[in-house]
Amino acid sequence: MNVFDKHASAAIDDAQLLRDEAQYSSFGDTVHYVDPPKIFRRCEGSWMYDTADVPFLDLQMWYSAVNFGYGNQRLNDTLKRQIDVLPQVASQYLHEGRIQLAKTIAQDVESKFGRKGRVHFNVGGAQAIEDSLKLVRNASNGKSLMFAFEGGYHGRTLGASSITSSYRYRRRFGHFGERAMFIPFPYPFRRPKGMTAEEYSDACVRQFARLFETEYNGVWDPKVNQAEYAAFYVEPIQGTGGYVIPPMNFFRDLKNVLDQYGILMVVDEIQMGFWRTGKLWSIEHFGVTPDVLVFGKALTNGLNPLSGLWAREELINPVVFPPGSTHSTFNSNPLGTAVGLEVIRMGYELDYETSVPAKGAHFLDGLRDLQKRHKEIGDVDGLGLALRAEICTEDGFTPNKALLDRMVDIGLAGDLEHNGKKIGLVLDVGGWYKNVITLAPSLDITHEEIDLAIALLDQLLTRAKRA
Protein backbone atom coordinates (compact mmCIF):
# COMPACT_ATOMS: atom_id res chain seq x y z
CA MET A 1 0.00 0.00 0.00
CA ASN A 2 1.20 3.51 -0.77
CA VAL A 3 2.15 5.15 2.53
CA PHE A 4 0.10 8.21 1.60
CA ASP A 5 -3.15 6.36 0.83
CA LYS A 6 -4.38 6.00 4.39
CA HIS A 7 -4.41 9.72 5.14
CA ALA A 8 -4.91 11.13 1.66
CA SER A 9 -8.29 12.73 2.36
CA ALA A 10 -7.91 14.02 5.94
CA ALA A 11 -5.36 15.63 8.19
CA ILE A 12 -3.64 13.21 10.53
CA ASP A 13 -4.74 13.80 14.12
CA ASP A 14 -2.29 15.00 16.77
CA ALA A 15 -2.20 11.69 18.68
CA GLN A 16 -1.15 9.73 15.58
CA LEU A 17 1.43 12.35 14.62
CA LEU A 18 2.98 12.16 18.08
CA ARG A 19 3.12 8.36 17.93
CA ASP A 20 4.80 8.56 14.53
CA GLU A 21 7.23 11.18 15.75
CA ALA A 22 8.16 9.06 18.73
CA GLN A 23 8.92 6.10 16.45
CA TYR A 24 10.47 7.63 13.33
CA SER A 25 12.06 10.99 14.21
CA SER A 26 15.49 11.61 15.64
CA PHE A 27 15.13 13.53 18.88
CA GLY A 28 18.65 14.90 18.37
CA ASP A 29 17.65 17.68 15.99
CA THR A 30 15.15 19.49 18.20
CA VAL A 31 14.20 20.32 21.79
CA HIS A 32 10.67 19.70 23.04
CA TYR A 33 9.85 22.34 25.65
CA VAL A 34 6.67 20.63 26.81
CA ASP A 35 5.44 17.05 27.09
CA PRO A 36 3.66 16.16 24.92
CA PRO A 37 5.17 18.41 22.25
CA LYS A 38 2.90 21.06 20.75
CA ILE A 39 1.68 20.73 17.16
CA PHE A 40 0.69 23.86 15.25
CA ARG A 41 -1.33 23.88 12.04
CA ARG A 42 -1.20 27.43 10.66
CA CYS A 43 0.20 30.88 11.37
CA GLU A 44 -0.42 34.53 10.50
CA GLY A 45 1.14 37.77 11.70
CA SER A 46 2.03 37.39 15.38
CA TRP A 47 -0.14 34.30 15.78
CA MET A 48 0.07 30.52 15.54
CA TYR A 49 -2.93 28.17 15.68
CA ASP A 50 -3.16 24.62 16.96
CA THR A 51 -5.39 21.78 15.76
CA ALA A 52 -8.36 23.13 17.75
CA ASP A 53 -7.74 26.52 16.11
CA VAL A 54 -6.80 28.09 19.46
CA PRO A 55 -4.73 31.24 18.79
CA PHE A 56 -1.28 31.54 20.37
CA LEU A 57 0.42 34.93 20.55
CA ASP A 58 4.03 34.24 19.60
CA LEU A 59 6.56 36.36 21.46
CA GLN A 60 9.67 34.60 20.13
CA MET A 61 8.98 34.37 16.36
CA TRP A 62 11.05 31.31 15.58
CA TYR A 63 14.06 32.56 17.57
CA SER A 64 13.93 35.94 15.80
CA ALA A 65 13.95 34.36 12.32
CA VAL A 66 10.47 35.69 11.45
CA ASN A 67 11.01 39.35 12.32
CA PHE A 68 8.38 40.51 9.84
CA GLY A 69 5.50 38.29 10.92
CA TYR A 70 4.17 34.95 9.80
CA GLY A 71 2.82 34.89 6.27
CA ASN A 72 4.09 38.39 5.44
CA GLN A 73 2.23 39.06 2.20
CA ARG A 74 4.88 41.24 0.62
CA LEU A 75 7.67 38.74 1.25
CA ASN A 76 5.53 35.73 0.30
CA ASP A 77 4.61 37.41 -2.99
CA THR A 78 8.30 38.06 -3.69
CA LEU A 79 9.01 34.36 -3.22
CA LYS A 80 6.12 33.36 -5.48
CA ARG A 81 7.27 35.68 -8.27
CA GLN A 82 10.79 34.30 -8.10
CA ILE A 83 9.52 30.70 -8.27
CA ASP A 84 7.99 31.44 -11.65
CA VAL A 85 11.14 33.01 -13.08
CA LEU A 86 14.30 31.38 -11.69
CA PRO A 87 13.54 29.06 -8.77
CA GLN A 88 16.83 27.16 -8.85
CA VAL A 89 20.33 27.58 -10.18
CA ALA A 90 23.58 25.90 -9.19
CA SER A 91 25.69 28.05 -6.90
CA GLN A 92 28.66 28.10 -9.28
CA TYR A 93 26.57 30.20 -11.68
CA LEU A 94 25.54 33.80 -11.23
CA HIS A 95 22.13 35.39 -11.09
CA GLU A 96 20.94 38.92 -10.49
CA GLY A 97 19.60 38.38 -6.97
CA ARG A 98 22.91 37.10 -5.63
CA ILE A 99 24.87 40.02 -7.02
CA GLN A 100 22.36 42.67 -6.01
CA LEU A 101 21.99 41.36 -2.45
CA ALA A 102 25.76 41.24 -1.95
CA LYS A 103 26.04 44.78 -3.33
CA THR A 104 23.20 46.05 -1.14
CA ILE A 105 24.70 44.65 2.07
CA ALA A 106 28.26 45.71 1.22
CA GLN A 107 27.20 49.25 0.37
CA ASP A 108 25.08 49.48 3.52
CA VAL A 109 28.01 48.39 5.69
CA GLU A 110 30.36 50.79 3.93
CA SER A 111 27.96 53.70 4.43
CA LYS A 112 27.74 52.98 8.16
CA PHE A 113 31.27 51.88 9.04
CA GLY A 114 33.36 53.42 6.28
CA ARG A 115 34.99 50.14 5.25
CA LYS A 116 34.91 48.46 1.88
CA GLY A 117 34.18 44.74 1.94
CA ARG A 118 32.52 41.78 0.29
CA VAL A 119 29.65 39.42 1.09
CA HIS A 120 29.91 35.63 1.18
CA PHE A 121 26.76 33.46 1.34
CA ASN A 122 25.75 30.18 2.94
CA VAL A 123 22.47 28.65 4.16
CA GLY A 124 22.24 28.49 7.98
CA GLY A 125 23.71 30.65 10.72
CA ALA A 126 26.08 27.99 12.05
CA GLN A 127 27.34 27.36 8.50
CA ALA A 128 28.10 31.06 8.13
CA ILE A 129 29.99 30.92 11.43
CA GLU A 130 31.99 27.99 10.04
CA ASP A 131 32.82 30.06 6.95
CA SER A 132 33.95 32.94 9.16
CA LEU A 133 36.26 30.59 11.07
CA LYS A 134 37.87 29.59 7.78
CA LEU A 135 38.19 33.23 6.77
CA VAL A 136 39.82 34.15 10.08
CA ARG A 137 42.21 31.20 10.00
CA ASN A 138 43.18 32.09 6.46
CA ALA A 139 43.81 35.73 7.38
CA SER A 140 45.93 34.81 10.41
CA ASN A 141 48.21 32.25 8.76
CA GLY A 142 46.31 29.30 10.17
CA LYS A 143 45.75 30.38 13.77
CA SER A 144 42.85 28.37 15.13
CA LEU A 145 42.42 29.78 18.65
CA MET A 146 39.62 32.29 19.28
CA PHE A 147 38.24 34.37 22.10
CA ALA A 148 34.52 34.28 22.84
CA PHE A 149 32.24 35.25 25.72
CA GLU A 150 30.85 33.39 28.67
CA GLY A 151 27.14 33.10 27.86
CA GLY A 152 27.79 33.37 24.13
CA TYR A 153 26.13 31.14 21.56
CA HIS A 154 27.18 30.74 17.92
CA GLY A 155 25.69 27.42 16.81
CA ARG A 156 26.02 23.66 17.20
CA THR A 157 28.21 22.51 14.34
CA LEU A 158 31.62 21.36 15.51
CA GLY A 159 33.37 24.64 14.79
CA ALA A 160 30.55 26.79 16.15
CA SER A 161 30.34 24.62 19.28
CA SER A 162 34.00 25.31 19.96
CA ILE A 163 33.28 29.04 20.37
CA THR A 164 29.95 28.53 22.22
CA SER A 165 30.52 28.67 25.97
CA SER A 166 28.08 25.94 27.04
CA TYR A 167 29.94 22.66 27.56
CA ARG A 168 26.73 20.64 27.15
CA TYR A 169 26.82 21.30 23.39
CA ARG A 170 30.27 19.64 23.23
CA ARG A 171 30.13 17.04 25.97
CA ARG A 172 29.36 13.89 23.99
CA PHE A 173 31.37 14.66 20.87
CA GLY A 174 34.96 14.21 21.91
CA HIS A 175 37.70 16.58 22.97
CA PHE A 176 37.63 20.09 21.49
CA GLY A 177 41.35 20.90 21.51
CA GLU A 178 40.78 24.29 19.91
CA ARG A 179 38.00 25.40 22.19
CA ALA A 180 37.80 29.17 22.60
CA MET A 181 39.03 31.00 25.66
CA PHE A 182 35.82 32.30 27.22
CA ILE A 183 35.98 35.83 28.60
CA PRO A 184 33.53 37.35 31.14
CA PHE A 185 30.69 39.35 29.59
CA PRO A 186 29.29 42.31 31.55
CA TYR A 187 25.90 41.17 32.79
CA PRO A 188 24.44 44.33 34.36
CA PHE A 189 21.75 42.67 36.48
CA ARG A 190 24.27 40.26 38.05
CA ARG A 191 27.18 42.67 38.41
CA PRO A 192 29.29 42.73 41.59
CA LYS A 193 27.82 44.72 44.45
CA GLY A 194 29.04 48.29 44.72
CA MET A 195 29.76 48.70 41.00
CA THR A 196 27.79 50.63 38.42
CA ALA A 197 27.13 48.84 35.13
CA GLU A 198 29.75 51.03 33.46
CA GLU A 199 32.33 50.29 36.16
CA TYR A 200 31.62 46.59 35.74
CA SER A 201 32.14 46.96 31.98
CA ASP A 202 35.47 48.71 32.59
CA ALA A 203 36.53 45.92 34.93
CA CYS A 204 35.73 43.25 32.31
CA VAL A 205 37.81 45.09 29.71
CA ARG A 206 40.73 45.50 32.14
CA GLN A 207 40.58 41.80 32.99
CA PHE A 208 40.79 40.95 29.30
CA ALA A 209 43.58 43.47 28.61
CA ARG A 210 45.64 41.95 31.42
CA LEU A 211 46.14 38.84 29.27
CA PHE A 212 48.55 40.92 27.18
CA GLU A 213 50.61 42.51 29.98
CA THR A 214 53.51 40.07 29.73
CA GLU A 215 54.34 36.89 27.87
CA TYR A 216 53.52 34.98 31.06
CA ASN A 217 49.91 36.10 31.07
CA GLY A 218 49.48 33.52 28.36
CA VAL A 219 48.42 34.91 24.98
CA TRP A 220 51.02 37.43 23.82
CA ASP A 221 54.64 37.29 22.64
CA PRO A 222 56.08 40.79 23.07
CA LYS A 223 59.30 39.91 21.24
CA VAL A 224 57.49 39.50 17.95
CA ASN A 225 54.33 41.49 18.85
CA GLN A 226 52.04 38.58 18.08
CA ALA A 227 48.99 37.13 19.79
CA GLU A 228 48.26 33.41 19.91
CA TYR A 229 44.56 34.13 19.25
CA ALA A 230 43.17 35.17 15.89
CA ALA A 231 39.76 36.72 16.61
CA PHE A 232 37.16 37.55 19.23
CA TYR A 233 33.63 36.33 18.46
CA VAL A 234 30.97 38.59 19.95
CA GLU A 235 27.21 38.92 20.03
CA PRO A 236 26.39 42.61 20.58
CA ILE A 237 23.44 41.40 22.67
CA GLN A 238 23.66 37.85 23.95
CA GLY A 239 20.87 35.81 22.39
CA THR A 240 20.54 32.35 23.92
CA GLY A 241 22.47 33.78 26.86
CA GLY A 242 19.37 35.73 27.84
CA TYR A 243 19.26 38.95 25.78
CA VAL A 244 21.92 40.47 28.01
CA ILE A 245 22.65 44.05 26.92
CA PRO A 246 26.09 45.35 27.90
CA PRO A 247 26.79 48.99 28.77
CA MET A 248 27.19 51.14 25.66
CA ASN A 249 30.89 51.79 26.26
CA PHE A 250 31.82 48.10 26.45
CA PHE A 251 32.48 47.16 22.83
CA ARG A 252 34.24 50.44 22.07
CA ASP A 253 36.69 49.81 24.91
CA LEU A 254 37.09 46.14 23.98
CA LYS A 255 37.77 46.98 20.33
CA ASN A 256 40.57 49.33 21.39
CA VAL A 257 42.33 46.39 23.03
CA LEU A 258 41.75 44.10 20.04
CA ASP A 259 43.09 46.66 17.58
CA GLN A 260 46.14 47.23 19.73
CA TYR A 261 47.08 43.56 19.51
CA GLY A 262 45.94 42.77 15.97
CA ILE A 263 42.96 40.57 16.91
CA LEU A 264 39.91 40.59 14.64
CA MET A 265 36.42 41.31 15.92
CA VAL A 266 33.82 38.96 14.41
CA VAL A 267 30.30 40.20 15.13
CA ASP A 268 27.53 37.59 15.20
CA GLU A 269 24.30 39.29 14.07
CA ILE A 270 22.43 36.04 13.36
CA GLN A 271 19.78 36.64 16.01
CA MET A 272 19.93 40.42 16.48
CA GLY A 273 20.26 41.56 12.87
CA PHE A 274 17.58 42.95 10.55
CA TRP A 275 16.04 45.61 12.84
CA ARG A 276 15.47 43.41 15.90
CA THR A 277 17.07 46.18 17.99
CA GLY A 278 15.87 49.05 15.79
CA LYS A 279 18.99 49.04 13.59
CA LEU A 280 19.74 46.81 10.63
CA TRP A 281 22.78 45.62 12.62
CA SER A 282 22.71 45.69 16.41
CA ILE A 283 26.43 46.56 16.56
CA GLU A 284 25.48 50.00 15.19
CA HIS A 285 24.34 50.97 18.70
CA PHE A 286 27.82 50.51 20.17
CA GLY A 287 30.08 52.74 18.07
CA VAL A 288 32.55 50.16 16.76
CA THR A 289 33.45 48.83 13.32
CA PRO A 290 33.51 45.03 12.90
CA ASP A 291 36.15 43.24 10.87
CA VAL A 292 33.70 40.46 10.01
CA LEU A 293 29.91 40.48 10.39
CA VAL A 294 27.87 37.26 10.27
CA PHE A 295 24.13 37.22 9.51
CA GLY A 296 21.26 34.80 8.88
CA LYS A 297 17.80 34.03 10.30
CA ALA A 298 15.54 37.02 9.55
CA LEU A 299 17.27 37.85 6.24
CA THR A 300 14.58 35.75 4.54
CA ASN A 301 11.93 35.91 7.31
CA GLY A 302 12.29 32.15 7.65
CA LEU A 303 11.61 31.50 3.94
CA ASN A 304 14.20 29.53 1.96
CA PRO A 305 17.01 30.01 4.49
CA LEU A 306 20.01 32.12 3.59
CA SER A 307 22.94 33.28 5.68
CA GLY A 308 26.27 34.87 5.06
CA LEU A 309 29.00 37.15 6.21
CA TRP A 310 30.49 40.50 5.34
CA ALA A 311 34.23 40.96 5.74
CA ARG A 312 36.49 43.87 5.04
CA GLU A 313 38.27 43.83 1.71
CA GLU A 314 41.71 42.97 3.08
CA LEU A 315 40.38 39.70 4.50
CA ILE A 316 38.13 38.49 1.69
CA ASN A 317 39.35 39.79 -1.65
CA PRO A 318 39.80 37.05 -4.29
CA VAL A 319 43.58 37.07 -4.00
CA VAL A 320 43.64 36.14 -0.31
CA PHE A 321 40.35 34.18 -0.21
CA PRO A 322 40.14 32.59 -3.65
CA PRO A 323 37.26 30.69 -5.32
CA GLY A 324 36.34 27.46 -3.57
CA SER A 325 37.64 28.46 -0.14
CA THR A 326 34.24 27.34 1.14
CA HIS A 327 31.20 26.13 -0.75
CA SER A 328 27.58 25.10 -0.24
CA THR A 329 25.26 23.72 -2.91
CA PHE A 330 22.40 25.96 -1.81
CA ASN A 331 24.24 29.16 -0.94
CA SER A 332 23.00 32.33 -2.67
CA ASN A 333 19.94 30.42 -3.88
CA PRO A 334 17.66 32.66 -5.99
CA LEU A 335 14.58 32.24 -3.78
CA GLY A 336 16.51 33.30 -0.68
CA THR A 337 18.31 36.20 -2.31
CA ALA A 338 15.05 37.54 -3.79
CA VAL A 339 13.40 37.57 -0.37
CA GLY A 340 16.54 38.96 1.27
CA LEU A 341 16.61 41.91 -1.11
CA GLU A 342 12.94 42.60 -0.40
CA VAL A 343 13.51 42.38 3.35
CA ILE A 344 16.15 45.10 3.23
CA ARG A 345 14.15 47.23 0.81
CA MET A 346 11.03 46.84 2.95
CA GLY A 347 12.86 47.57 6.19
CA TYR A 348 14.04 50.95 5.00
CA GLU A 349 10.78 51.82 3.22
CA LEU A 350 8.68 51.07 6.31
CA ASP A 351 11.20 52.83 8.58
CA TYR A 352 11.71 50.13 11.19
CA GLU A 353 14.43 52.34 12.68
CA THR A 354 11.60 54.54 13.97
CA SER A 355 8.79 52.07 14.64
CA VAL A 356 10.80 49.35 16.41
CA PRO A 357 12.26 51.60 19.16
CA ALA A 358 8.78 53.09 19.76
CA LYS A 359 7.16 49.68 20.10
CA GLY A 360 10.07 48.44 22.19
CA ALA A 361 9.70 51.35 24.60
CA HIS A 362 5.97 50.62 24.92
CA PHE A 363 6.66 46.93 25.59
CA LEU A 364 9.39 47.74 28.11
CA ASP A 365 7.07 50.12 29.96
CA GLY A 366 4.56 47.28 30.20
CA LEU A 367 7.21 44.90 31.53
CA ARG A 368 8.27 47.45 34.15
CA ASP A 369 4.67 47.84 35.26
CA LEU A 370 4.38 44.06 35.43
CA GLN A 371 7.57 43.95 37.50
CA LYS A 372 5.94 46.22 40.10
CA ARG A 373 3.13 43.69 40.54
CA HIS A 374 5.33 40.57 40.59
CA LYS A 375 8.44 40.62 42.76
CA GLU A 376 9.54 37.42 41.01
CA ILE A 377 10.52 39.53 37.98
CA GLY A 378 14.04 40.45 38.99
CA ASP A 379 15.09 42.36 35.89
CA VAL A 380 13.61 43.74 32.71
CA ASP A 381 15.59 45.34 29.92
CA GLY A 382 15.45 45.79 26.20
CA LEU A 383 16.87 47.36 23.07
CA GLY A 384 14.26 47.83 20.38
CA LEU A 385 12.16 44.67 20.31
CA ALA A 386 14.85 42.49 21.88
CA LEU A 387 13.52 42.34 25.44
CA ARG A 388 14.16 40.31 28.58
CA ALA A 389 12.35 39.48 31.81
CA GLU A 390 14.42 37.56 34.36
CA ILE A 391 12.34 35.26 36.56
CA CYS A 392 13.55 34.89 40.13
CA THR A 393 12.38 33.77 43.52
CA GLU A 394 10.59 36.22 45.80
CA ASP A 395 13.92 37.88 46.66
CA GLY A 396 14.00 39.25 43.11
CA PHE A 397 17.49 37.91 42.39
CA THR A 398 17.88 34.15 42.89
CA PRO A 399 17.24 32.40 39.53
CA ASN A 400 13.91 30.55 39.38
CA LYS A 401 13.98 28.16 36.44
CA ALA A 402 11.15 26.06 37.86
CA LEU A 403 8.72 28.99 37.83
CA LEU A 404 9.57 29.88 34.24
CA ASP A 405 9.19 26.23 33.19
CA ARG A 406 5.67 26.26 34.64
CA MET A 407 4.93 29.48 32.76
CA VAL A 408 6.02 27.91 29.47
CA ASP A 409 3.85 24.85 30.12
CA ILE A 410 0.79 26.95 30.92
CA GLY A 411 1.32 29.22 27.93
CA LEU A 412 1.54 26.29 25.52
CA ALA A 413 -1.46 24.55 27.06
CA GLY A 414 -3.59 27.17 25.32
CA ASP A 415 -6.08 27.68 28.15
CA LEU A 416 -5.37 31.25 29.17
CA GLU A 417 -8.42 33.48 28.81
CA HIS A 418 -9.09 36.61 26.77
CA ASN A 419 -12.53 38.04 26.07
CA GLY A 420 -14.10 34.80 27.26
CA LYS A 421 -12.12 32.63 24.82
CA LYS A 422 -9.14 30.34 25.17
CA ILE A 423 -5.78 31.72 24.09
CA GLY A 424 -2.14 30.60 24.30
CA LEU A 425 1.22 32.30 24.63
CA VAL A 426 4.51 31.18 23.03
CA LEU A 427 7.60 32.07 25.06
CA ASP A 428 11.27 31.30 24.66
CA VAL A 429 13.53 30.39 27.56
CA GLY A 430 17.09 31.68 27.69
CA GLY A 431 19.69 32.92 30.09
CA TRP A 432 22.70 31.56 31.89
CA TYR A 433 20.37 29.96 34.46
CA LYS A 434 17.51 29.24 32.01
CA ASN A 435 15.32 31.65 33.93
CA VAL A 436 14.96 34.46 31.38
CA ILE A 437 12.02 35.09 29.07
CA THR A 438 13.71 36.27 25.87
CA LEU A 439 11.11 38.28 24.00
CA ALA A 440 11.47 38.65 20.24
CA PRO A 441 8.00 39.53 18.92
CA SER A 442 7.21 40.36 15.33
CA LEU A 443 8.49 43.80 14.40
CA ASP A 444 4.99 44.39 13.04
CA ILE A 445 3.35 43.62 16.39
CA THR A 446 0.68 46.21 17.18
CA HIS A 447 0.45 48.28 20.35
CA GLU A 448 -2.79 46.43 21.11
CA GLU A 449 -1.00 43.08 20.80
CA ILE A 450 1.76 44.35 23.09
CA ASP A 451 -0.85 45.30 25.70
CA LEU A 452 -2.40 41.85 25.30
CA ALA A 453 1.02 40.24 25.75
CA ILE A 454 1.51 42.07 29.06
CA ALA A 455 -1.97 41.03 30.24
CA LEU A 456 -1.30 37.41 29.31
CA LEU A 457 2.10 37.44 31.02
CA ASP A 458 0.37 38.79 34.14
CA GLN A 459 -2.19 35.98 33.98
CA LEU A 460 0.53 33.43 33.28
CA LEU A 461 2.70 34.49 36.22
CA THR A 462 -0.25 34.50 38.58
CA ARG A 463 -1.24 30.97 37.57
CA ALA A 464 2.32 29.63 37.63
CA LYS A 465 2.93 30.93 41.16
CA ARG A 466 -0.22 29.17 42.36
CA ALA A 467 0.65 25.88 40.62
TrEMBL record:
GO terms for molecular function: transaminase activity. Its cofactor is pyridoxal 5'-phosphate. Keywords: Aminotransferase, Pyridoxal phosphate, Transferase. Pfam families: Aminotran_3. It comes from the Bacteria. InterPro entries: Aminotrans_3, Aminotrans_3_PPA_site, Class-III_PLP-dep_AT, PyrdxlP-dep_Trfase, PyrdxlP-dep_Trfase_major, PyrdxlP-dep_Trfase_small. Belongs to the class-III pyridoxal-phosphate-dependent aminotransferase family. This is Aminotransferase class III-fold pyridoxal phosphate-dependent enzyme.
